[in-house]
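Hey team,

Filing this mostly as a record. A colleague (T.K.) asked me to run one chain through the structure pipeline before their review meeting, and I want the input and output archived in the tracker in case anyone asks later how it was produced. No errors, nothing strange. Just documentation.

Input sequence:
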Amino acid sequence: MKILVLNCGSSSLKSSLYDLKNHEKKPPAPIWEGQLQWTGRFSDVALDTKTNQGQKLTKKINAATFDAALSELIASLMQKESPVLASIDEIDAVGHRIVHGGKVYRDSVLIDHDVKSKIRQFAAFAPLHNFPALQGIEAMEKLIRKKPQIAVFDTAFHHSLPMEATVYPVPYHWYEQGVQRFGFHGISYHYCSERAADMLQRDVKTLKMVICHLGAGASLCAVMNGKSHDTTMGFTPLEGLMMNTRSGTIDPGIILERLKKTDLDTLSHELYRESGLWGVSGVSSDMREILKSAHEGHQRAQLAFDMYIHRLSSCIGSMVASIAGIDALVYTAGIGENTPVLRKKVCERFAFLGIDIDPDLNDQTKARDADISSKNAKVRTLVIHTEEAFEIARECWRMVKRA
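Output structure:
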């Protein structure tokens, strides 16, 4: 079954094509990957593709609209030099990553008019993600009219959160009006929890895990018995950990104070785009640049890294407490998979729990699945390369087979 996966953002679109034979546990390599990147309007769009046979295409396209740019990307699947498909009709289903599904969607769904309407409604909570995803859905409807399109929600995995983790300590009618913890990165957490169980040769329903999804957006999830029991992101993806450019959790009184001195749009931009690693260091939002500058003696870069470790460790502690124990600590996403010094410093703080990593295994592991625990560790520490696109494809396979 050939499944096209789209992940649409505000300045990029990532796509993968999988050919799944069954509901596979271990991800096969996609047979094709494509990406569009742009700044501002569609006057200068970069298109990059590669196949699992090694063929690559990179070019600039002059597309006036999102639909035109996406059409060029899809057309590259049938390019004469290295065609992946003979016809677009070979695609059996299209899967879309949808960041916010609100209270409504507890599982993946076939997209219809009502689903699109709900995605548009929930864009109020995630405008940088839901609106572009909706654009992708509607553009693909024009390109592939008769094939199923499936929405896979980042929030769906967290519908198992207990009420004490869901409701905020504010007037209860806020909750009745829709203010609650939703949680995000659920597609990644679903994949990583099952992959971790497979690596440990355990039933996922017998494990207590804390999964650290550390990318440009970062969050933690306490997974117990295969389900989300607690998570750090909340009503929006702004809560929780210090991130690349987002503040994470701060005193709400700071917001009230800043609103006396600035307008709402400026404050929102500063919290989402000018805070976190970038805001503190003044050097970069990239952890690699932060570490390089800190090594060279840049004090604010060092402070940014120290703060990141402090806040990450504090939140891991709260996740462990919420599930009253831990069998495995899992690192995933760009920073989690590729920053051995971060894993080392965090794990050292939890030695009292029986977390102990092998220094050589830790240093050798980058962007691949590995158990980096020492022989004497009571708690396993894993590095897992997250496979969100594959997880979306697998959900599509399940939905199509069930239909």
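Quick notes for T.K.: The chain has two domains: 6-153, 201-383. The first helix runs from residue 66 to 75.
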